[in-house]
Structures are given as C-alpha cells and as structure tokens.
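Methods: example folding runs. The two proteins below were folded one after another, and each record is reproduced exactly as written to the output file, sequence line first and structure-token line second.
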Amino acid sequence: MKVRVDRDLCTGIGNCVAYAPTVFAFDDERKAVALDPSSVDEDTLITAAESCPQDAIIVEDDDGRQVYP
C-alpha cells in the first residue's frame, strides 16, 4: 500500500496521527505527512484515512490504483 496526504486539504485535525502514529506525523506547519504505511496493517491504514473529515489521505494499492477515498 502507498499513502499520501493532500496538503491543500489537510487542516491538521490529527485523527490520522491518533489512529496510526507510525504512519502519520505532523510537520512544522501542523499538516500531516506520511511516514511508513507498511508499519500497520491495511485495515488500520484505511481506518486512519477514513477518519480524516477532509478526505486528505489518499491510499493506493501496490499497482497505483486508488483504494481510498
């Protein structure tokens, strides 16, 4: 799985960091950044992405197909 954060949509609420702190962290602008998506299972990664009210987290499978949102 691959994950990225749309910085234009991210408002820094932090649900993703709470659900998957090994995958997401805040940068100096208090925007989420993706670290290591392989550090959690797929269900946890999707749950973290779904927790973002702005849908700023994009999850793709290994073939580059968008899984979420």
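Second run, written to the same file directly after the first:
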Amino acid sequence: MILTYYWPPSGGSGVQRWMYFAKHLKQLGWEPIVITVDENKASYSVFDTSLNSEVNNIRVIKTKTREPLQWYSILTTGSKQKGIPQGEIKKKSILGKLAAFIRGNFFIPDARVGWVPFALQAARKTIIEKGIKQIITTGPPHSSHLIGLQLQKEFSLEWFVDFRDPWSDLFYNQDLYRLPRAASKDLKLEKEVLLAASGVITTVGGVLHANLESKAPNQKFYNIPNGYDAELMDAVVAEKENDVFHVVYTGLLTRNQSYTTVFNILNELAINQSIRLSLAGNISSDIIEEIKDRFANIDVIYKGYLSHREAIHLMKSAHVLLNFIFVGAQTQMISGKILEYLATEVPLLSIGKSDSDAAKFIEQGSASVMFEVEDTESIRVFIEQVQSKKGRLKNKFPKIDQWSRSNLTRRLIEEVLS
C-alpha cells in the first residue's frame, strides 16, 4: 500500500516518482494499492490529466481532506491553485508574512496535516480487507509519514518512509518564522518517524543521507533516486530549428533561483544572433514579465504548464537546457527533471554549488556542467561552445538506462521490498 498526497491528475514533479513506481510494480507482478486525496479537495498547484493514463489499472482509494492552503490561495490570488506555495515562501506583503507564520507554527509538520485522519480511516479499512503487510509513505508533505507511524502502532506492518525532499532541514523552513517550540516539535516528529520505520528511502545520498542518518544512526537507509520514463523518451521526436539558438527551461521558476546571470549573458549574445528562450512550467506572471522586460534582446516565449509529453518534446527541441538549483537546497536534492534533461542528450547548463552531489552527478555527462552563479566566464564559454556546434553537440551520459523508471523499480523491489 502506497500513501501519497500527490497522484494524477496532479501535475508537477512531486507526483511522478510514485506514479511510475506503482505503474512498474504492477507490470512486474505486484499489486499496489494507492491511498491518496480526492483531487477536488486537494491543494494541487497544477494539474496534468494526461498522467491518468499511466496508472489507469492501479487500484486507487481517494479520501477527503481538511486543509487551509486553498483558502490562502483564494485570498491572495483569487484562484484555488495559483497561490499555493512552491519552492519559496512569499513574504513581501503583510498577509504573506502572516500566512508564513501561521503555516510554520500552527500546522506541524505542514499545512496538509488535515489529510491524516481521512487517510488513516481508509488505510485501516484496506489493511484489514486486503491483509496488507507492507506500506510506503512518501513526503512531502511529510505529514504523510504520521499516517504510517500510527498504522505501524496498530498493525504488524513493514513500513518504509520515502524522503523525496528533506523534512526539518528543508531550505525554506527558515522563512516560516518558526518559534522554537514549533521547530522542536517538528524535529521530534521527524526523529520519531525515522526511528520507528522499517527502513528509510531517499532520492539522493550525500548531505541529505548524512543528515537523516545522524538522527537515526541505527536505521536502514536505501538510496533509490529519481529517474526518467524511457518509453516516453524514445517515443517523443522533436526537430531542432537551425535559424535560431533555442534555449529551454522547464519546471518551477522562483526568485529563490539564480537565473539572472545566465539570462544576462544570453541577452548580450542575442545582440548579434537570434536567441529564443522557451519557458514552461508553473511560473508567476510577474517573473515572466520581468524576464521579457529586462532581457529584451531575447525572444522569450512562455509556454505555460505543459503535459509531461509536451514538456519532453520541448526539451528535445532545444540546443541547450537550463537548470537552476534552489538557493539553500544545493546539497539536498537531485530532481527527476535533471534525469529527464540528461536522457534527452541535449547539452545541459546548471547553476548551483559546483562541489555538490548534483554537480558531481551532472558532470558525468559529456556536455553537462554545473557552475557557480558568480562564474560568468565559464557560463559564457559553455554557451558559446554549444552555440557554435548548434544541434551537433550531444550530451552522452554513461549507462543512462540505469536511471530509467523501470530499472529503478527493479532496484526498489530487490533492495527494499523483497
């Protein structure tokens, strides 16, 4: 049984990890049962109905929830989705600061903790009816792990905790105005979960692994990273235009990412040649307008939120792909998007810590680099190198098939579930 808040038709990166695990577990003879939240009640920032087809043969139980994020979103933006925080805490307004304080001090561990009682009720019934012996909880939201903690107390279960991102050490927790009592309670819950679980799964080793191990030194830890859909990657074909240098960024883009340096360089280069910057994902209109105004030499096109297939097509049409690691999270994660970028064989320019786990991973590619934002000369040289070989430079990554979703599911079975 998999307990996950994010599930199709939710879009975004959070949904894909366990959507694909469930899909391939089913193909490999397992019978996953998913407990999730009703999408009509959930605080999903984006939707991607195309993902429903990936898991249409998986048994899914959807529950009610009780949470404040939709009301906050309506108050701040007039929309149920647009104002749901992602990747940054908005603190410019008094309302934003108040919302951050309430979120950080009254909803522990997170603002989706209201899902816990509903999921517990559905999980108890399913465990009894189906004789479930293994469960997995995945976070964020890390309140999902409180469901597993309670179920383990009530039933004889093997319970695995999946950390897609850090919990108490998550980079934007420092912006939630947390009082010492709230921070202490959050850390206590995290340690209780880590110590009680049968095993802990993380998406990346290094600092994240070490931080969690320090809180539960005798726990079993497994590193099962994010991956890419090999079938989809092979199926999507995209032509590259020769009369324009096409730069692509997909995913969440916030002011907590260092993107201006790269765009400045592109804007200077665009004086003498045609450069198109395609942006796709959940990006605020303020950021889009800022980019268009500040970097007027570039042909900036905002595609909006694309389906997963459409996003892969856009990536493959690029001459170079951009990635910006969240400031404060440079050592904490290697996203599934990076794996998809690498699988396209398109050159990759990433901005972040050059000595991080993500940098060491990315730089295994033949045309993929991680530069510090201050290293403007190296950034410019790399862009010009790619530009001079427009369309002919391939980014070959060693043994990329090891990172396919199907092969990672086999690892999950062999290392964790069996």
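Comment on the second run: The chain has two domains: 2-223, 230-400.
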